Fold this protein.
Amino acid sequence: MKLDLYNLANQKIGEVEVSDEVFGAEVRPYLFHEVVKMQLACRRRGTHKGKTRSEVSGGGKKPFKQKGTGNARQGTTRAPHMVGGGWAFAKRNRDYSYSLNKKKCRAALRSVLSMAAGEGRIKVVDAFDLSEIKTRAAVKALSTLEVKRGLVIDCKANDVAEKATTLNNENLRLSVRNLQDYKYLRPEGVNVYDVLHYGSVVVTKAGLERLEARLK
């Protein structure tokens, strides 16, 4: 399978050969649902908490005398049925995250990339190098590429650390980070939710090679 290769002036300068295993896989929407559901669950903070009767302040004495008021007898204002009392079944801090097996997650990512490639929503550029950190320059380049909303995928080779990791293209990352309709990611961070959320993908040739190597 081949994808068109462009420069930042949106001129076609050639083609790149990509693996059918990654960009020509069967589209399976049910995998999108499973993986996105897991991603959103893992993003939940789970910091909600209510106070039980043992945690509410006060209540050290009877709210009123035992007899003669006509009310039901009460021993404390901290009881759940009293105004200002604790919760009977208070919410507690909890972890909502869970995991799917890696094989299924990779299959879902291959599937969503194949869907985007089949619909012509993946644009491969030779390089996306900015001379300085400038949001205006990034917006101009993306407008020229005719991408109104999308993921921007790029990386720099890492000769110091492990070969499996890459470095950020810092000028590009910092130029894109304040844009609502675009998001910068390295190939290691590409995921199903973001591809579906942003719709289009702008990926450099270097980023495409690392992404392909990750999913093969």
The two ends are 14 Å apart (CA to CA). The chain has a mean pLDDT of 93. Residues 46-95 form one domain.
